[in-house]
């Protein structure tokens, strides 16, 4: 049986798949496999090891009549046509939980960097612009004792709340269902979305990408935020109306934004966000620690091996797929 791997993965993980199966691996790590090549390679594939950035749509499934399992090295799976996979009885695995703490770390790093102009200050030194101490030079926003509003109180949201508690922050959250367990454990306060936006000094977007959350933060929502507020997004770019955000940043309707994700990735050097001084931009590195990425790759490979051996995979996106197999 054949496994198609859509990005270069660590050799030690690939060797586990090579032991019993034929593998094809696209040799690039930072460049996506050409779509036409993907369609060609999956023609005789039994398994697909993919990631958050590669498009696995209906055409891919149609081109792969032998496909038995898909596993993505990511928690999000909006790049995969789950409906098509389910209809064909193909289970799809993903990697939740293992990356929660790493993404929470990065989220808080992005919050601090944006609030305290860390990137701008480093560029200031590199440009040889530092001539001495100034009373209001590179002044930012207080983090300690401020109010944070978390949209999406899952594993990552919980991690961010724990870190915020260490900074003495008041913690509001908005979620599709109230999390009374976390309210008791962490002292977080449930809030409507509008109230959260109005009250928060930092609004942190951590919701999954769904039809309900698409452009959840748009012009109206941005207008509710304080002019001193900062928006952080480490979830999915589709959750924020990027055009509305750019306008709000240009007009200083909000103080700043820290973004690790974008509506279309990767962004290029001519993207309108690049020229703004009140943003910090990162290239989708929320889970990018060596330990976390290795654990994600290991779990993705394990899902592939389980799927090919007929076992029910551990972290399943679409349990209905097994019913479709009859």
Automatic annotation (TrEMBL):
Gene3D superfamilies xref list: NAD(P)-binding Rossmann-like Domain
Domain D-isomer specific 2-hydroxyacid dehydrogenase catalytic: 6-318
Annotated ranges, domain D-isomer specific 2-hydroxyacid dehydrogenase NAD-binding: 108-286
GO CC terms in record: cytosol
InterPro entries tied to this protein: D-isomer_2-hydroxyacid_DH, D-isomer_2_OHA_DH_cat_dom, D-isomer_DH_CS1, D-isomer_DH_NAD-bd, NAD(P)-bd_dom_sf
Record keywords, A-Z: Oxidoreductase
Protein name per UniProt: D-glycerate dehydrogenase
Organism: Paenibacillus foliorum
